[in-house]
Every structure is written in C-alpha cells, then in structure tokens.
Design brief:
The chain is of the alpha/beta class. It has a single domain (7-205), classed as 3-Layer(aba) Sandwich (Rossmann fold). Helix content is 41%, strand content 14%. It has helices spanning 15-18, 25-28, 30-42, 71-79, 104-116, 139-157, 183-205; strands at 7-13, 47-53, 83-87, 121-126, 161-163. Helix 6 links the parallel strand 4 (121-126) and strand 5 (161-163).
C-alpha cells in the first residue's frame, strides 16, 4: 500500500483491450473508460491505467502472435504495475494456433507469474464473447478448449477470474464484426473490470 504514488493498472490483452474498431479508441477503449471510472471513485491521480493491448496477441508462447514477443509486453513489464487485468485467449482459438494450444495452460500460467514477479496482482479474464462468422476463429475450440483452460488455470494458480463472457453473451449486436465491441459495449467491459478492481484498488489506496 502506498500514498506517495498512484496505483498502476496495466490492461494486458489483444484487440478488444487495444480498442480496435472504435471510432475514437483512445477515449472509448475499455482501459480509458476504466481510468475515468476510477477517477470518479478515487479522484484524479489516485490511479494510473495504461492500455497494453496488442491486436492479434495470444497467451501461447509459440503461436502466430505471442503476447510475450510484443512491444506491449515489454512496455507493460517496464510499467511495474500493481494490478493487471489480463484478457487473452480469443486469438489462441484461431485455426492457425491449433498446435500452440497444447501449451496454452502452461504459457498462460507463466504469463500470470511473470507479472506476479513484478509485484502485481493479476486478474485473469474469461474474455468477452465472439460471434460467428469470423473466418480465423475456431469457435468449437474457443468454447471447448480455450475458455475452459483459462478458467481452470485461474483456479489452479489462485488468480481472481473476471467473467466478461456471461454478461455479454447475448449482446451480438454490440460486436458488429463478431469480435470487436461498440463503444457502448466497451463501456460495459470497463464497468465489469471496475467492479472487480474497485475493492482491490480501494484496499491498496487505504480507502
């Protein structure tokens, strides 16, 4: 707990975190909305939220776009966050990543442990829904392999699991291309993240 520095929150993820498809992603992406919600709750300067989303990123290390090898991973590490909402997995369900999924559980756990090693508390995310047709995504693998793996890993390593799926599973119209949310849905994603983070941040800030 510290009163001399802001609570640093690193939003780690792929294109939904990055804000792909939004008219004004810098203001409408969920990390930006989360910053505003935390400012309203704790006052400006209490928290610093940064967006470390990287479009196409996976949790698996040997895939077509491993988060491990992105500039966002390097930047998030240098940020030395106190809290990390980690929203990866949808891209692990791409047809191109069928072999990479064999190590998904281990790689996801290692990614959580990487940020824990920096002193951060990591919140694992069951990612928002995706809706067919999306040519790259194996929806059976997303449902039967990836999501269960994320949930299982969270339990096994004791990471809080934030459910971004169930509250939005009927919001097909809010994902125009099947993957990326509208600004309205991005705000709902931020509200879910805020609900999970608020008590943790409040404890950290001593409020």
């Amino acid at each position: 707990m510290s009163s001399t520095e802001p609570c640093r929150i690193a939003c780690v993820g792929a294109s939904v975190t990055f804000g792909r498809g939004l008219p004004n992603r810098r203001e409408q992406c969920y990390p930006a909305v989360l910053q505003r919600l935390l400012d309203e709750r704790y006052g400006a300067g209490g928290c610093e939220v940064r967006n470390f989303g990287y479009s196409g990123a996976t949790a698996a290390r040997v895939s077509n776009e491993p988060y491990w090898q992105t500039p966002s991973f390097t930047a998030a590490t240098r940020f030395e966050p106190h809290f990390v909402p980690l929203m990866l997995g949808t891209n692990d369900a791409q047809f191109a990543n069928v072999s990479a999924r064999r190590t998904l559980a281990r790689d996801l756990a290692d990614l959580v442990e990487h940020f824990r090693g920096l002193g951060a508390e990591v919140l694992a995310a069951d990612p928002p829904p995706a809706f067919p047709p999306v040519a790259e995504i194996d929806f059976d693998a997303l449902r039967d392999e990836v999501r269960p793996t994320v949930r299982r890993v969270a339990v096994e390593i004791g990471a809080p699991l934030v459910d971004f799926f169930s509250p939005l599973e009927d919001a097909r119209a809010g994902f125009p291309d099947g993957l990326h949310p509208t600004a309205e849905v991005a705000e709902k994603i931020a509200q879910i993240a805020f609900g999970a983070l608020e008590p943790l941040v409040g404890r950290w800030l001593g409020r």
